User: Fold this.
Amino acid sequence: MDTAPAAKATVHTQNPPKRRALLFLVLPPALWLLCFLVLPYLGLFIQSFLGSDDLGNVVLEPTLDPWKAFFTKTLYRSTLLYTFKIALTVTSLSVLFSVPLAYFIAFKVRRWKELLYSLIIVPLWVSYIVRAYAWKIILGREGILNSFLQWAKITDAPVEAFLYSEWAIVIGLVHIYTPFVLMPVYTAFEQIPRSLVEASKDLGAGRLTTFFRVVLPLSLPGVIAGGTFAFVLTLGDFLAPVLLGGTDNLMISNVVQNLFGTSNDRPLGSVVGIVLLVVVVALLETTSRAEKSFASLESGRGRLGGAR
Amino acid sequence: MTRKFDLPTLFVGAAAAFVLAFIYLPMVVVVVYSFNPDAVNVFPMRGFSLRWYRVLLEDEQLVSALRISLLIALGGTSIGLLLGVPGAIALARHEFPGKRILERIVLLPLTLPGIVTGVAMLSFFPLIGVPVSLLAVLIGHGTFLIAITLTQVYARLRRLDPSLEEASADLGAPPLTTFFRVILPNIKTAIIGSALLSFTLSLDEIPVTFFLIAGDNTLPIQIWAMMRRGISPEVNAISTLVFAGSIGLILLGTALGGRDKE
Assistant:
């Protein structure tokens, strides 16, 4: 969007009626976004420098205390690191899961291609909460997995460790965010010119060599885009940790949630929110640069496949 | 693209099947267990029953949550269309001061974590006279749906040759006529597609809603509340209906020609 060439439509100098039409077009959305988006973000930033009274109400007294609290208490740093660890695990697994499925559909399937493609798109549209819930009934103490294991006489007592563990969070999040990785990876595979793959084979490269030296490098922009989705979405997730991780596996977004909820310390909550925001923006900038530098040839022309 | 099924292909195929099963099995489990006659979800299931669908219909809170969600989705989608389509035309076809900034701002609700947007709105809305309420939820949804509609319609307009509109204007058509006779027919499918996408996203939205809701829950928040109270197969039944609803919307989207969902 920001690389849009500005030349085409506006060769003519703008006359007054056109300018009036423009105001009519741009002012309502611009004002809406200013009032309900930009100002709230600015307010959050300001709030992170404010104090609060004994009841937790925010008061208009500038102070650095929330920021000091954030940087001195180890809880926040360790939670942030823990969140990064989870996000990295979720991202790696989602990529690991996406590559074979996307590869298979892109290169190995002909007749059922349309159907299989729809099958990987559909979960993107299907309720987050319901998919998290699915894992809760599967992994629970009296859940389906446990009763199945007992029915099959593999275990004779329910395994407690399935639900409310770090692994439950990871499995749930990988399940929920893999479709977000699948789509850009698949698009990247589809955009690889088949002639390159054939050329590699004609030149005597084996399948593995072709995959690792030709296909995978050309699909890197898609992999990076998808991985970024998974990572950023995990950072902002505060429902799965509560539903699947219980009370001992809280992530950074749960800290924000608690500070704006039960703990009622909005200035400190704003600090954590701003930190989360800065991390996400820095990450998106870095990966969009990486994507561009890997986006040689036709592949990965745009995030969501602008070529189609 | 060999047709023979050799070992590497078999291996990739098995991995692909495993991942597809991983994605779909949990949803299948929920659907199957919505017909569970018992109050606990255990394997094997003992029979088949519509008991939980009956419970669901009599659950007034749930039905009211569904109604609220549909109203918010309808209102939010309308806000998104009314402000997003003009915004997309302005960004795609005009030059004006602040354009670059606006382009970046529009992407914020799509790229930043919903929880940050949620707490920012929670802190700010009461200051401008919008207390935590369904109105606040509607404004919150409208805001990110403007971003959805705007980016989708913008992408379509970039692929549309502006000389069509110039020809229309040169032939003496006033701007509104050009809009309705030239632009609109060309971006119709993008508008329908973004409206359906908006509707679905709004029905499913949690992070922003969570912070702006007062007493009356939307459907996903109500499901969340039910889950926290304990697992009841009633949630399986409502989940199955939610699946059916989403798939219905997708089919509708494809049928109406919104083929490119990018």
User: Anything to note?
Assistant: The radius of gyration of chain B is 23 Å. Chain B touches chain A through 98 residues (CB under 8 Å). Residues 37 and 49 of chain B are 5 Å apart (CA to CA).
